[in-house]
Amino acid sequence: MKTGEDYKNGQVLLIDKPLTWTSFQAVNKLRWAIRQAFGIKKIKVGHAGTLDPLATGLLVICTGKMTKQINTFQGQEKEYTGTFVLGSTTPSYDLETEINETFPTEHITEDLIHNTTEQFTGKTEQFPPIFSAIKKKGKRLYEFARAGETVEIKSRQVEITEFEITNISGNNIGFRVVCSKGTYIRSLAHDFGKALKSGAHLSVLRRTRIGDFKVEDGLTPEEFIATLPEKEQN
Question: Which of 131, 186, 194, 218 has the CB geometry, 3.0–4.6 Å to 14, for a possible disulfide?
Answer without folding.
Answer: 218
